[in-house]
Design brief:
The chain has 473 residues and is of the alpha/beta class. It has four domains: 133 residues, Rossmann fold, CATH 3.40.50; 116 residues, Hect, E3 ligase catalytic domain fold (Alpha-Beta Complex); 105 residues, no CATH class; 50 residues. It is 44% helix and 15% strand. The protein contains 16 helices and 16 strands. The strands form five sheets. Strands 1, 2, 3, 4 and 5 form a five-stranded parallel β-sheet that branches. Strands 10-15-16-14 form a four-stranded mixed β-sheet, covered by helices on one side. A hairpin with a 2-residue loop joins β11 and β12. The longest helix has 34 residues.
């Protein structure tokens, strides 16, 4: 029995003045196509990236969320609808990689509703030509934009969003009355002896957020201290990201037309202090203590306060990653030996049945046909709810709703009649033989880590009670 196809829609616009490609225009075209081709287009499968370039996928959150959803099982949708192929990607490498993965590995088609190229051999060539022309247009446009930005910077005009402490009005930076004093306090605190992590923790405790709405950490505080915009200058790198290497020859540093927030002498004093500390301790004191050296619980233990992973803070101890960077307020420092002993003791109690097991997943085998059938059944029931919503929203007529409901109800009855019984996991005692191996000094830490990952999903360490909760797979 054939069921209706479920569609996802991907919409992208690069600028506010692209009327032809506005989100509403694209969505209307995609809804019309789905309706004409007997497809369901649920609201939760509509992905929109606004004001974002199509050159790469790395900075398109809605696109990445769509790809992540597409990888779940059973597959959530059968096709992805686009207004044009250029909305999907203007980079041929991205287009080839993602389309191949979607079609060959996941069984999901990518369809341009305005570029009907068919499905024969010639269509493959036509689609490649369209993507090549889109990529040429994107590269050429980027070069023109870059030339314009260089010209603006040379005149002392801003070319990026305002830094924390500033707003932008009439194409110029203007101090924000609420956040500009915070910038001044950051410089003052630093010059009066506070470290970057301490300042970050103070700002987070006061519920002050960065310009992007995130938590502060030591590197974002350092970025404030290093930013010459606060002494009235414009810094920009035509070559792209500086990765906080401000000595690159390509970097432009021009006097701006905006009001400074910090005196130049204050800025220079803060940067001299930063340079002295870097010279004294190196770029990262943690790196000198071998933080990447593997240990048995590497990547498995999480902070009970914020959920971040515990990583090496010194050669023989670990600390919450976010606490080390000023984003978590509770220290979870513990020696690696003590943490190992805690986990092994708790794991033994769990495997022997003296401690109730905690599962991060179902207690059924994920490959169990019963689970696969249950997932398919749940997907069909979601479709039934969506066609009802489409009717109530006036998208489908009563006749369309009745026909869709008939098809989906038939599929549900078929799955319910065929659903097998689930199989339980094997007893936990079968893993008891790993305990001597985990205590064996001749087994490497990497081998012990691999062994633990066969049973453990993650471990939560509570510093206040000095206890661990082990979550099994």
């Amino acid at each position: 029995m054939n069921s209706m196809k479920t569609a996802a829609a991907y919409i992208r616009v690069s600028t506010d003045d692209q009327i032809e490609y506005s989100p509403d225009s694209q969505l209307k075209a995609l809804r019309d196509y789905a309706k004409r081709n007997d497809m369901i287009l649920p609201e939760e499968f509509i992905y929109i990236d606004e004001g974002i370039s199509g050159r790469t996928t790395s900075k398109r959150p809605a696109f990445n969320r769509m790809i992540g959803t597409a990888k779940t099982k059973p597959k959530p949708f059968d096709v992805i609808l686009l207004w044009k192929f250029s909305r999907f990607a203007r980079n041929r490498e991205d287009a080839i990689v993602y389309k191949s993965m979607l079609r060959k590995q996941l069984g999901i088609e990518v369809i341009s509703v305005s570029e009907n190229i068919g499905d024969d051999k010639m269509s493959v060539l036509i689609e490649a030509m369209i993507e090549a022309m889109d990529e040429y247009y994107s590269i050429n446009l980027a070069e023109e934009v870059k030339r314009g930005m260089i010209e603006k910077v040379s005149r002392g005009e801003p070319v990026s969003i305002p830094a924390f402490g500033y707003d932008i009005k009439e194409k110029n930076y203007v101090p924000n009355p609420e956040t500009a004093p915070i910038v001044a306090s950051i410089f003052s605190d630093y010059l009066n002896g506070s470290g970057t992590r301490e300042i970050a923790q103070k700002l987070n405790a006061l519920d002050i957020r960065t310009s992007r709405g995130g938590l502060w950490e030591n590197r974002t505080v350092e970025y404030i201290l290093r930013n010459p915009v606060y002494i009235g200058k414009i810094r920009w790198n035509p070559a792209g990201r500086t990765r906080r290497n401000y000595d690159q020859s390509s970097i432009m540093l021009i006097d701006g037309h905006h009001e400074p927030i910090i005196e130049e002498s204050t800025f220079n004093a803060a940067n001299e202090k930063l340079d002295e500390i870097k010279a004294l301790y190196g770029k990262s004191t943690a790196k000198q203590n071998h933080p990447s050296e593997p240990f048995m619980l590497y990547g498995l233990v999480q902070c009970s306060n914020c959920g971040a992973t515990l990583t090496r803070s010194a050669k023989d101890s670990v600390q919450c990653y976010k606490y080390a960077h000023g984003k978590c307020s509770v220290s979870h420092h513990i020696s690696i030996k003590k943490l190992n002993d805690l986990v092994l003791e708790s794991l033994e109690g769990t495997l022997r049945g003296t401690i109730p097991p905690l599962y991060s997943e179902r207690v059924y085998q994920i490959e169990d046909p019963a689970i696969q059938s249950a997932n398919l059944l749940a997907a069909e029931k979601r479709k039934l709810e969506r066609v009802k919503q489409a009717y109530e929203a006036g998208i489908d007529t009563l006749e369309e709703y009745r026909e869709n409901k008939r098809k989906i109800t038939g599929r549900i009855k078929q799955l319910e009649a065929e659903q097998p019984k689930p199989k339980l996991r094997k007893p936990l005692q079968e893993h008891l033989d790993m305990l001597p191996k985990l205590r064996d000094p001749d087994l490497t830490t990497e081998e012990k880590n691999i062994l633990l990952r066969t049973v453990i999903s993650h471990v939560v360490f509570n510093r206040a009670s000095c206890t661990v909760d082990i979550f099994l797979r």
